Amino acid sequence: LPLFERLEKRIVDGERNGLDDDLEAAMQEKKPLQIVNENLLAGMKVVGDLFGSGQMQLPFVLQSAETMKAAVAYLEPHMEKDDSGGKGKLLLATVKGDVHDIGKNLVDIIVSNNGYDVVNIGIKQPVNAILEAADENKVDVIGMSGLLVKSTVIMKDNLQEMNTRGIAEKYPVMLGGAALTRSFVENDLDEVYQGDVRYAKDAFEGLNLMDRLMS
Ligand code: B1M
Predict the structure, then answer these.
(1) What is the rounded distance in angstroms from the CA atom of residue 66 to the CA atom of residue 205?
(2) How far is CA 104 from CA 9, 59, 77, 123, 183, in A?
(3) 96 φ, ψ to 5°?
């Protein structure tokens, strides 16, 4: 297979042997972020489709996810960056009950490489932990990620909890993850939350949103 097709297939197959060499060769032709967007994410999409249609079992999905993470970790040091920080602070968490973190971690990379500070507290985070970390780190924006349909319900509960605690005005919220839709966030959740809640389709929209919220 040609190099870029092979990279995509590596993600689908969860094949890490020789991955670094292929990534090294790929970087001779494309920027690291382009490789993530055009080839690695394409592989994850295939994985999602195969899993969704019952043609791929969970342990193999996990291997693909680990390969994806290894590839992103390999490319990350080669990305163009302004990691001076100081433009604003974003808290990132995957919500309670949800382990999916590849998308959240991409948001972390893109946003922190563009002059923001990111406090990434990981997966399965209950609302208390999210709000405590937000306060402790004095963040400007709270970002929640979730890929399961039930995570969208948790996000709604979290926003209601923030209303109850009277901190909605203080914290704009950014939401992302494959289970959400723009209209669910911008119509339904916008009605729930007394502060500012926005949807980011991908990591770049997340960055744009930070730029808008912090300007
Ligand atoms: Co899971 N999983 N999974 N899974 N998994 C999905 C989400 C699913 C859609 C697959 C399917 O059925 N087609 C399905 C959910 C169905 C539903 O809820 N309706 C599903 C399921 C069912 C499950 C389990 C329940 C399976 C089981 O145990 N029977 C289980 C859940 C465990 C749990 O959370 N409690 C499970 C487990 C796993 C693995 C552990 C094997 C693995 C995750 C590994 C990991 O993340 N460390 C996994 C994976 C890899 C997937 C799929 C195949 C790929 C997800 C991914 O990483 N995509 C996924 C299929 C799919 O999404 N269609 C699936 C690539 C990633 C870059 O995209 O995260 O969407 P994404 O991020 C995007 C944007 O959404 C956005 O930016 C990114 C791109 O730039 N974004 C943000 C994301 N977060 C953001 C936050 C922001 C802004 C933008 O601001 C805060």
Answers:
(1) 25
(2) 23, 21, 18, 9, 20
(3) -45, 135
Please state whether beta strands 89-94 and 197-199 pair in parallel, antiparallel, or not at all (unpaired): unpaired
Non-local CB neighbours of 104 within 8 Å, separated by 6+ positions: 92, 93, 94, 120, 123, 143, 145, 176, 177
3-state secondary structure of 89: strand
Residues listed for the chain: 215
Identify how many contiguous H helices and E strands the chain contains and give both numbers: 11, 5
* 101 in a labelled binding site: yes
Pocket test for ligand 1, best of 107, 147, 184 (most atoms within 8 A of CB): 147
Mean of pLDDT values over 174-194: 97
- Is pLDDT of 177 > 90? yes
How many whole angstroms from 100 Cα to the centroid of ligand 1? 5
Q: What is the rounded average pLDDT of the residues 64-83?
A: 94
> Which amino acid residue places its CA nearest to atom 30 of ligand 1?
99
| Atom of ligand 1 minimally distant from the CA of 47 | 53
pLDDT (tens digit per residue) in 25-58: 999 999 999 999 999 999 999 999 999 999 999 9
For the chain, what percentages of helix, strand and coil (3-state, to nearest 5) are there? Answer: 55, 10, 30
Distance 62 CA to ligand 1 centre (A): 11
Q: Supply the residue whose CA is at minimum distance from atom 64 of ligand 1.
A: 48
DSSP-H helix ranges across 88-148: 102-112, 127-136
Write out the two tokens for 175.
């939401």
